[in-house]
Amino acid sequence: MVRFLSLSFLALVGAMVLVGCGSGAEETVVDPNDWRSEVDVIRMGAKGSEDDPATLRRWDALEALLIDVTGLPVKIYEASDYNGIIQAMASGQIEFSSMGAGSFANLYSQVGDAAIPVVVSTDSRGLRGYYSSVVVRADSEFQTLDDLKGKSLAFIDFNSTSGYIYPRFAMRAEGIDPDTHFGELAVAGGHSQGMLALANGQFDAVVLGVSGGSPELGFYTGALRRMAKREMVDLEDYREIWFAGPIANSPYVIRKDLPQALRDLIAGAMISLAFEEPEIFSDIGRIPGSTYSAVDLEFYREILDMQQLEIRQHRERFVKR
Fold first, then answer.
1. Confidence band of 287 (pLDDT split at 50, 70, 90)
2. How sure is the predictor about 160, in pLDDT bands with cuts at 50, 70 and 90?
3. DSSP state of 92
């Protein structure tokens, strides 16, 4: 049975709008549901996760929510990597997706504000960020980034915020050029791949995302801890020697060419989800006590600037060749 959320926000969006036609003019009633005649289907992008197979089941729960809220069919388009989501959004093949802040920065560099962030996850303390970490084997001699000079380091993906863009910027801010400091750099292709490569001795260190806390208080989630929970690795076998952050959490991004009423409807449903539909909120993998909150372009200004700096540096290196 289709359930429409009983939200005051959605009621506001669904209310009749009165449009004035000038002084003394009669008011015209406009039905905001007219936007449904402009949209046949909502196409949602989903990146498959090698860290957590339950991720795709979470997308199914979100698909059911969007169907309930909008009354429109929803199609999920799965991509194998970050770039697949970016290109699908840039080319208009999808309208709505979650993506990392770095992926959004890459998308923004291609299409500007044709696609905008609308909501972001927020924990029970109001925090809306996470961190990068550099992980080494516990039995290694490495204690700091300086100890890794001339050694091998694996990043995750060129479009990964915590696994590439942010840590490179943070390293440079500390006076370490990652392109010259380390003896070998590689891109692992995923967090699990990076950890397994570290475990097998292919690299001396790997960059991973970590969340649910701070360097001072400790963390309770992230790629390493998820793998340990699934007994793929033992936490005691690894040591985190460096952190950078906080990084703005991954946004849900929507194309601006969708009708405004539909964009507001989806954003309002997401923001109210933890309170109105806690079971669905849990089904999509959110932690009790957390919620979604509204964001705009300026919330990601730091990562947008970092991405532009990274692009300029790549161009300069290419020219020097």
1. confident
2. confident
3. T
Distance between CA atoms of 295 and 267, rounded to whole angstroms?
A: 10
Cα gap 107→194, rounded to integer Å = 25
Q: Which two tokens stand for residue 151?
A: 């050694």
pTM over 0.85: no
CB atoms within 10 A of CB 47: 21
The whole-angstrom separation of Cα 100 and Cα 174 is: 24
* CA separation for the pair 240, 162 (Å, rounded): 14
Start-to-end CA distance of the chain, whole Å, equals 62
Q: Which two tokens stand for residue 213?
A: 């806390």
Work out the percent of the chain whose per-residue pLDDT is above 90.
Answer: 51
Whole-angstrom Cα distance, residue 76 to residue 115?
18
Is the dihedral angle over the CA atoms 49, 117, 2, 88 positive or is it negative? negative
Name the nearest CA neighbour of 46 among 252, 297, 286, 290: 252
Q: Return the SS3 of 5.
A: coil
In angstroms, what CA-CA distances link 263 with 66, 68, 253, 259, 279?
A: 11, 15, 10, 6, 23
Measured CA to CA, the distance from residue 210 to residue 228 in angstroms comes to 13
Question: Residue 49: which of 96, 86, 98 has the closest Cα?
Answer: 98
The verdict on whether omega for the bond into residue 246 sits within 30 degrees of 0, i.e. cis, is yes
Strand intervals (E) in 259-311? 291-294
Query: CB of 298 within 8 A of CB of 113?
Result: no
Does 191 have pLDDT greater than 60? yes
- On the question of pLDDT at 20 being above 50, the answer is no
